[in-house]
UniProtKB/TrEMBL annotation:
Pfam families membership: DUF938
Alphabetized Gene3D superfamilies for the sequence: Vaccinia Virus protein VP39
Similarity field: Belongs to the UPF0585 family.
Lineage: Eukaryota, Rhodophyta, Bangiophyceae, Porphyridiales, Porphyridiaceae
Protein name according to UniProt: UPF0585 protein C16orf13-like
Length: 250
């Protein structure tokens, strides 16, 4: 099993990779680790923000008690680093990562294996958040769930994905469940909180890569939430001008 710190994990992965050409693999177990390491994508940003996010999730999500595990459904799980790291030390919770991208799904599965997280992270599900929530069960998404988590999708996907996220959360969340979103937001117009120059530059670069992308105004996201029957219940300032927002049923 690899250590918690991604720096350590990543360096082991690179060590496995770089040693492959020189050393013949001795057994099947090592072969499997090597194959998983080849599929595991590494995002320095996900590595940096995983621990602060995990600390907040541990505070927000109470340890699950009772006969069934609590379910965290992650949308747009990307590399899978958040799934394996943020799910640690959440007693009684099972994490279900999803992403529409096939390479991401492979990466999540690889991280799950590398971090020996099979007991707390389920196999990833290929899912586009825009799919009709009624059809999610058919692709293996459990419902209802106790929480949703979605990091860094709202600004790096078309606006309709944000709308779909809240619609799906409204559809699949248990009564007292919550949706946790993480990423940058614009708060200057309605809330009077100036946008950091780095986020303004990031917004411009996102829009130049894809005109449908861009950092969203918090009030626009709140409007979408309201239409889905959810309200903002908590706003947490996170490192690097990101916010962690907690949404609950109105
Ligand atoms: C910037 S990455 C964020 C990944 C990860 N959550 C993180 O914070 O490191 C954006 C992710 O959004 C996913 N994504 C894009 N469009 C999506 C959609 N329609 N439904 C669900 N996920 C989507 C991409 O596949 C990608 O993994």
């Amino acid at each position: 099993m690899l250590g918690f710190a991604f720096g350590g994990s990543a360096s082991l992965i690179f060590a496995v990779r770089s040693s492959r050409a020189r050393l013949p693999l001795r057994n099947l177990a090592r072969d499997c680790v090597s194959m998983a390491a080849d599929r595991a994508q590494h995002s320095p940003a996900a590595e940096r923000n995983a621990l602060p996010i995990r600390n907040e999730l541990r505070r927000i999500l109470k340890p699950a008690s009772g006969s069934r595990p609590a379910i965290m459904l992650e949308i747009a799980a990307g590399t899978g680093q958040h799934a394996v790291l943020c799910s640690a030390e959440l007693p009684g919770w099972v994490w279900v990562p999803t992403d529409p991208d096939e390479t991401a799904v492979e990466s999540i599965a690889a991280w799950r294996e590398l971090e020996a997280a099979q007991d707390r992270v389920q196999m990833p599900i290929q899912l586009d958040v825009r799919q009709d929530p009624e059809t999610w069960l058919a692709v293996g998404v459990p419902s209802p769930v106790d929480a949703f988590f979605c990091a860094n999708m709202i600004h790096i996907a078309p606006w309709e994905c944000c709308v779909a996220l809240f619609k799906a959360a409204s559809h699949h969340l248990r009564e007292h469940g919550c949706l946790v979103t993480y990423g940058p937001y614009l708060e200057d117009v309605l809330h009077g909180i100036p946008t950091a120059p780095s986020n303004l530059a990031f917004d411009q670069s996102l829009k130049s890569r894809n005109p449908e992308w861009g950092i969203r105004k918090r009030e626009d996201v709140e409007m979408v939430a309201q239409r889905a029957g959810l309200v903002l219940s908590e706003r947490v300032q996170m490192p690097a001008n990101n916010l962690l927002l907690v949404w609950r049923r109105a």
